[in-house]
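Batch manifest, entry 17 of 40.
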Amino acid sequence: MTTSNLDAVFLAQRTPLLRTLLRIVKNPSVAEDLVQETYLRVATTLRDRRVDHLEPFLFQTGRNLALDHLRHTRMKLRTLLDDVPEDVIEAVPAATPSTEDGLYASQLLERLGASLAKLTERQQRIFILSRLHGCGQAEIAEKLDVSQSTVQKELRLIMAICVETLSRLDPA
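Output type: C-alpha cells
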C-alpha cells in the first residue's frame, strides 16, 4: 500500500472517521486533532510494513488513539484531584464571565445574526450544514445538488462576512 493509496482512502473516509472519533471523545477540536494523528500514524506504519485492508486499519487506529486520549485524560483528572484536598477544590470560585465579556458576546451574536440573516437561503443552508451539523463539503454539495466548488466558494464568502463582522466589533 502506497502513500498515494493512503491519501485517497483518507480523503474518502475523513468525514466518517471524524464523526466516529467525535462520538468517542465528544470534543470537535480533539476529534480533528485525532484525525490528523491517525493519518500520521498510518503513514508511518505503511513505511514499515504492508497493510492489506487500509480502511479498517485507518478506523481502528483512530479509535485506538481516541481511547488512549480518553484514558490519558481520565488518569490526569484522577491524579490532579487525588493530590488536592477536597476543601481546597470546593474553595475554588466558579469561572463566571465578567459583565464586559457578556456584553461583548451578546453584541457579537447580535451582529453575526444580522450579517448571516442577509445571506441567501442557499448560503444559510450551507452554513448550517457545515458549522452546525458538521457536514463536509462533498456531503453539502450532494444534499443541495451543487458542485463542491460552489460550496467551497460560498463557505469562503460566509467566513469572510463573519470575520468582517468580528473586526467591526473589535478593531484590535
